Amino acid sequence: GEKIWVELGRAKFKGTIADPDKAGVAIDVPGRKERVGWGELSRAQLVSFAAAAKPEPKAADRVAFGLLALTGGEMAAAYEQFAIALEADPGAKDAIVAILQRGGAGLVHVPGGEFLAGQNRQAAEVRDFLIGAREVTNIEYAFYCKATGAPPPSHWRKGEYLRGHDAYPVTNVSWAEADAYAKWLAMRLPSDIEWEKAARGTDGRLYPWGNTYRRGLATVTPSEIANDPKRKARYRPRLVAVTRCRVQDYPFPLYHIVGNAREWTSTPTQGRETEYVVVGGSAADTEKEATAYARGKQAAAARDPFTGFRLAWPR
């Protein structure tokens, strides 16, 4: 009879849940008093409901709850359950890592073959590969630190990221730290040419959506602000959640392939392993750095507040 938050799809109501059976559950929320199928409840709601059931869930149950939440795109609910499972039984780590390796990163297939690369649109070729649909997030990296003992990014307070920033890209990680995270999941960082194929498709477009910059499709600093010293001094670039921007008329279902956090690649600059290519531009860069052919470079040991990474496979 106690009122709780009831999530039906993307809607959230204060009400009660009762009388569960194989088909569904009875809900009593404003505007609705009926039985609903389990499929109508959000994954986070299902996890919350199952976790509250008696007897106390075991570590294996928590892992299953996390998988359920992860398949529904509920990262916060998923990693909460994974963390509880890990505390209850350190041996649960292997099962959790296996789940994350099989698709926790939301990998997208990019077919191999030729495409038009570089500023001069010259033919280049890559093999088939998978690339992360989005940048690696704070909550994912926090679980990695918990599971492996790796140090958290230096700007996190007492080892924790800012509240409410679960789904923001993890930044302030060196190249080696990003590479170690990828290897933990039996993956890797994409090369710069793979990233470019994912960012521009096969037709040589300058941006994922075409050849003309369109405001609102990438999180960058507007050039009119960057070129005005007074406005630039007052402007504070900010990162956003990794699934905020997705271009609908784009060949691959990727989020923030340009803008938000610039991204480490596996490509050293001129063969040097003390410096690596970064791509995509960031919230602190203008649309020039967000073109699909733009390249930057960063010392491998650098920890930058606007540089993160996404994953690629196979190794």
Briefly, what is this?
The chain is of the alpha+beta class and 315 residues long. It has helices at residues 43-51, 59-71, 75-88, 93-101, 138-148, 175-184, 192-200, 223-226, 229-234; strands at 4-8, 11-18, 24-29, 32-37, 107-110, 113-117, 122-126, 129-132, 262-269, 272-279, 295-299, 307-308, 312-313. Strand 2 (11-18) and strand 3 form a beta hairpin.
Furnish the topology, listing elements before pairings.
Elements: E1 4-8, E2 11-18, E3 24-29, E4 32-37, H1 43-51, H2 59-71, H3 75-88, H4 93-101, E5 107-110, E6 113-117, E7 122-126, E8 129-132, H5 138-148, H6 175-184, H7 192-200, H8 223-226, H9 229-234, E9 262-269, E10 272-279, E11 295-299, E12 307-308, E13 312-313
Parallel strand pairs: 9-12
Antiparallel strand pairs: 1-2, 2-3, 3-4, 5-8, 6-7, 8-13, 9-10, 10-11
Helix pairs in contact: 1-2, 2-3, 3-5
